[in-house]
Amino acid sequence: MRKKTLAGSLGSTYLRCLILMAKADGKILPEEIDFINLHAAAMGVEERVLWSEVPADLSFVDAAAVSPEMALQIIKDCIFLANADGEYSPNERELLELMAGRLGIRQEAFERLEARLIGLWRLVDRMRQPDRP
């Protein structure tokens, strides 16, 4: 069985967005690499090919080739990845806004999704505190 290539596939847009997001704060955590490689493996993409074919910008993103549902999934997973280290940096947020725009997601929809996920992170953080009421 032949492995999929990144060229022209919807999965490549998803994976490339994840990699750009992981790089946005200047450091790539082992957990981020594992998250991306797990998704790549599920799509049949070889890791070494995946990491070598990512451009430095969003020029590969074509909103016309991505369904609205997939666009939201990409942004959701990129927001999740941006918080992998417990910090949501201005560089990560700026990239997410640009990415959302390229994917055809309206600013209001992006901000609602972002607010829901940030609220979820805060809830999880509070639940992890040993002295919580």
Distance between the termini: 54 Å
Count of β-strands? 0
What string, H for helix and E for strand, traces the elements in order? HHHHHH
CATH class, named Mainly Alpha
Strand content: under 5%
Provide structural commentary.
The structure is a single chain. Helices cover 62% and strands 0% of the residues. The chain has 133 residues and is mainly α. The chain has one domain: TerB-like (Orthogonal Bundle). The termini are far apart.
Please give a handful of descriptors for the protein shown.
133 residues, mainly alpha, 62% helix, disordered N terminus
Question: What would a concise description of this structure say?
Answer:
This protein has one domain: TerB-like (Orthogonal Bundle). Helix content is 62%, strand content 0%. The chain has 6 helices and no strands.
Fold blueprint:
Blueprint: H1 10-23, H2 30-42, H3 47-52, H4 68-82, H5 90-102, H6 107-128
Helix pairs in contact: 1-2, 1-4, 4-5, 4-6
